[in-house]
Amino acid sequence: MALPRVDIIGLGGTISMAGAGAAGVLPTLTAEDLVQALPALAEAAEVQAAQFRMIAGSSLSMADLVATAAEVQRRLDEGAAGVVVTQGTDTIEEVAFGLDLLVPGEAPVVVTGAMRNPTLPGADGPANLLAALQVAASPLARGLGALVVFNDEIHAARWVQKTHTSSPATFRSRPLGPIGWVAEGAVRIALRPVGRRQVCVPAAAPQRPVALLTMALGDDGRLLGSLAGLGYSGAVLEALGGGHLPFFAVEAAARLAAEMPVALASRTGSGEVLRGTYGFAGSESDLLARGLIHAGALDGPKARILLSLLLQGGAGRGEIVAAFGEA
Ligand code: ASP
Fold first, then answer.
1. What is the pLDDT of residues 226-238, one digit of tens each?
2. Banded pLDDT at 22 (limits 50, 70, 90)
3. Do both 169 and 26 map to the same domain?
4. d(CA 49, CA 11)
5. Number of domains present in the structure of the chain
6. Which residue's CA is minimally distant from atom 3 of ligand 1?
7. pTM here?
8. Ligand 1 binding pocket mutation candidate from 17, 55, 90, 170 (most atoms within 8 A of CB)
9. What secondary structure letter does DSSP report for 243?
């Protein structure tokens, strides 16, 4: 039986890094190099590999994300059954969520990388790449939205977070856990996500930068107050707990919300921002009444991806509120 075509797009990151000594490892190995070093890939799919970027995950930009989504779509339109993106783990959760929003349809789009670079004992890149390819080739993975496959676990892009600086088990999905796993090459899907946001960004649409600000004990709103003059089109506040600011930062937040869309997320990293539990100055009810937009259960980085892409796609306030309101 003919194997499905699965394309691998390399963006760089630890999975591609080489070098040694005091200088540290650098993105070096191309997607073609990774494929050549792993003959088992050819047993799972007809592989086409291409290098698209060669940088650390921390240097990927919103422009890179939008361009990668277009490249994924182009390859699916050309006949690929699925696509694997390899990249630095630092921004996997954001790129995967962006691909979830930007690439419509049922075909599996899988993001993976490595925590241990190829020069280290126990390098996890090859195992992650093989499992990612097996998932991207599997009809079982269709219709799940973009996925992150890592450490033999399958995570939905909308939930996954990097939670550890060095562990190969760094990716977690709170509050649900992985939606499936890979065992001896077999793809198992235990949960299917319900609903999915989609955003359309026209090819030539200019970027709309969105700031992400995490609030902390005693924050007096100084940074918040200075955001309006910095050229941002929107902002995401990772507020305290259920969506709270110190009362002395509220005026700055309200002024900013009068200037641009400001999404209210939580710095806790899990759970929905509250809507109407507390009534103190700086509470969620106070901030929502002052025009901040409820970010639902999205954490700060994901809320920033959604708001950036919505603005780039030309969405107005009503569409933005509606998109954040979707589960
Ligand atoms: N700093 C690396 C990167 O994101 C980390 C990794 O890939 O694991 O490129």
1. 999 999 999 999 9
2. confident
3. yes
4. 11
5. 2
6. 88
7. 0.97
8. 90
9. T
